[in-house]
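look at this:
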Amino acid sequence: MGAKNVNVYLDNSATTKPCENSVIKALQMMNENFGNPSSLHACGFSAKKELDNARRVVSSFLGCEQNELYFTPSGTVANNTAIFGTEKARRRDGKKVVVSLLEHPSVLKCFETLEDMGYEVVYLKPDSSGKINLDELSNAVDGNTIFVSIMAVNNEVGSIQDISKIKGIIKDCKSKAYFHCDAVQGFGKLTIKPKKLGIDLMSMSAHKIHGIKGAGALFVSNNVRILPYVVGGGQENGLISGTESIPAICAFGEAVKDIGNVEKNLHNVQVVKDYFINKISTLDKVYVNSPEDALPYIINISVEGVPSQVMLNSLSSMGIYVSAGSACAKGHRSNVLTAMGVSPKSIDSAIRISLSKFTTENDMEMLYNGIIETINRVRR
């Protein structure tokens, strides 16, 4: 089924529909301003001016200096650069790192690599509400710790970590560890100012906020030092080599401009989520895996007796699009739900419903009806 037939799109944690201004800007850059920003001629200078403007827009939104923002090809590259860039810069300072079991594969797989390299990796297990225990974090961090990575919002259940306290805990432990936050799912949906929160490194992605694929960003505090992980021509002040994707980056800037009022959007999405939760609360053997205080943009539920893929395929045939979990973990039982203590039976029937600021109650009504229709057909 092609994109033109989409009726209800509820997989916004995987990717969002680009906003009109992002598409217009990307096309403009491809058609009219296609120069390489590193080229020393008028066409290159014009592209560089647009690149600088996009950096100004995004850094202003974050409340950071422009020289603290580095554009990347994706959130995954931002995460890899933060982790391995720190390892290269600080390998003599210690051999211990700390990470939560809630993290995206682009973080967890990096830590598996660090483990193979001889690092001691402490994995923090979440509780049943999808949150890490800050006392366990405090016990894990010591003078040998060089890196702590805790995401802002989990991409499967929407649990929100109290990232405002993490840097203080690191300091209380007499540690000089860098605090990295994967904010891909929280950026643009929560107010996250990295400098105010004590975040040293923060990853973002354009296509999660109605930009286009091919652009991400990494905030790197001026107070920390990391080394290049991707090497080459020395773009992005030497940190992330490779010709910048100017269309995607400039579209990223337009998407940030279009975010609007973060708190107002959050309230409106909460209303839509509550409407849906109230509807499904009447259904037999349907369970909500997301905690009550989760980011309302993400709802994880289990429909007992209907395997995840069966539900996904059934809804897809109706033009309703959800996910069976993280789009980056196909075919694997969710490590997040497993860590939260959700039963294998519930995990195998779990689906992720992810909203955007454009999602309506009518969209959720159609989803509700689709779930009922699937239950009636499959549960016999």
